[in-house]
Design goal:
The protein has 483 residues and is α/β, with parallel strands linked by helices. Helices cover 31% and strands 13% of the residues. It contains 19 helices and 13 strands. Helix 14 crosses helix 15 (351-359) and helix 16 (421-429) crosses helix 17.
Length: 483
């Protein structure tokens, strides 16, 4: 359908607006074969929809840089640049870190909006552009019929295209076959590699205990996605990850993306919360910046986390509803742990990200129904004390005390969203890997039977009359918490 629309656009003398970046990244090698057989590849090429790669190319931010003058205009004027794509991810900054807004559309609509050169247009009424003959061109004139599409599919989309494209896929490319693979039972870590390094997940195990004197690394709002937490797109040269790669002699042209370097924790931890569209209420600017407390100095989130670590200060993250929406990206939890975050206190969690946090030993603490960071009067400058998490049953309320800078205290509760016995065993060990090491290497037996499991009602929020019946102890009005 996109190719047929492109063919008609070419016949009318249309071209995408010069400021529009166009590219084609099919999901399958077979797509190229049937587009070529139908002759539609040439029409797409004439409009700039040249094949730049396959699979996740565009959705992961690997379709290349914007035109320099466009990039410069965005930076100088604070423009909200837009994208339309026929992929499956439209998070802020995902397609390109300078492109804030994105819409998911069908392939022919992507071509149509590229020809229009603007997003604020009603294509059912307004002309897309002016043809070579000086007449307006409307979408209805370019849109192919279902019958046209069906005829081409019947003649050009054939099983042999798939068979030919993938008959030798397991053999790999000549470069793949030329790789030197050592015949060892264990992976030979290369200390000089900038792509694959031995991770440090078990070097800093933080098993479930009390959290004392924690600082808020970030204060976030609602619907923070895993793309905000751990972006997968291009690495900016001026970011902590970019500066780290530069220090290792990697040129910016070879930075690649966070997604491609997920085997390097040194890069990925520097990329955690580094999305340029992140809104952290501790600072007035967007991006991966926070305020170190109590100094008040604004630093990159990574630099602030490392300073807190040097000071021996544990960290928490404060957030709203739907924390961790979007891709089930494991690095959103891994990076959170490696930054030194012990707990995320939020109004609600996305299902998979909550489980991933538990798998890394980070406590997902869900505020009771009707409560929020704002309603509790918290602004993130407080110190946080959390009761001993090793003694709390799954789904039970946890006592938390926030101490403001003037010494005033705010006591509240949050549900420990560790939703079952197996998760509890993993969480109490400090995450999946420590739990496996406990069982396999050390022969430890961690009881998993007869543990009280939270009901769905308690996970949604305990009624006030039931709070005091939980296993969690309230903090006295003035005495410090007992651990």
């Amino acid at each position: 359908a996109a190719g047929l629309l492109a063919r008609r656009a070419v016949a009318r003398g249309l071209q995408p607006a010069p400021w529009v970046k166009t590219s084609l990244a099919p999901g399958s090698l077979a797509v190229t074969r049937y587009l070529e057989e139908s002759g539609l590849a040439a029409d797409l090429d004439r409009l700039g929809f040249n094949t730049v790669g396959y699979g996740c190319t565009t959705c992961i931010g690997n379709s290349g840089p914007l035109p320099p003058e466009v990039s410069r205009a965005i930076g100088e004027h604070g423009l909200v640049a837009c994208a339309v794509l026929s992929g499956n991810r439209n998070f802020e900054g995902r397609i390109h870190n300078e492109v804030r807004a994105a819409w998911l559309m069908s392939p022919p609509l992507v071509v149509a909006f590229a020809l229009a050169g603007r997003i604020d247009i009603d294509l059912t009424r307004d002309p897309i552009a002016t043809g070579a003959d000086g007449r307006p061109v409307y979408l209805r004139e370019l849109w192919p019929s279902n019958e046209e599409v069906a005829r081409l599919v019947a003649t050009c989309v054939r099983p042999e295209h798939f068979a030919a494209a993938y008959a030798h896929i397991a053999e790999g490319s000549p470069k793949w076959r030329a790789l030197d693979v050592p015949a060892t039972e264990r992976f030979p870590w290369d200390d000089d590699s900038t792509y694959v390094r031995r991770p440090t997940y078990v070097d800093h195990i933080a098993a479930a205990t009390a959290i004392r004197g924690a600082r808020a690394l970030l204060v976030l709002g609602d619907s923070v996605s895993t793309d905000h937490i751990s972006p997968a797109g291009a690495i900016r040269p001026d970011s902590p990850a970019g500066r780290h790669l530069t220090s290792l002699g990697v040129a910016p042209a070879d930075f690649n993306s966070y997604g491609s370097r997920r085997g390097n924790h040194d890069v990925m931890v520097r990329g955690t919360f580094a999305n340029p569209r992140l809104r952290n209420h501790l600072v007035a600017v967007e991006g991966g910046v926070t305020r170190h407390l109590p100094s008040g100095e604004e630093l990159s989130i990574f630099d602030a986390a490392m300073r807190y670590r040097a000071e021996g200060t544990p960290l928490v993250v404060l957030a709203g509803v739907d924390y961790g929406t979007g891709s089930s990206r494991d690095w959103a939890a891994k990076g959170t742990l490696l930054l030194g975050v012990r707990a995320v206190i939020a109004r609600g969690f996305e299902r998979i990200h909550r489980a991933n946090l538990v798998g890394m030993g980070v406590a997902p603490l869900q505020l009771l129904d009707g409560e929020s960071i704002e309603s509790l009067g918290l602004d993130g400058t407080e110190r946080f004390d959390v009761e001993d998490l090793s003694k709390v049953a799954p789904g039970a309320p946890v006592a938390i005390r926030a101490t403001r800078e003037d010494g005033r205290e705010v006591d509240f509760r949050a549900l420990l969203r560790v939703d079952g016995a197996e998760e509890l065993r993993c969480f109490r060990s400090g995450g999946i890997l420590p739990a496996v090491l406990d069982l396999v290497c050390c022969g430890k037996e961690i009881a998993t039977q007869a543990l009280p499991i939270a009901s769905p009602a308690s996970i949604a929020g305990l009624p006030p009359e039931e709070v005091d019946r939980s296993s969690a102890e309230s903090f006295p009005a003035s005495d410090p918490p007992a651990y």
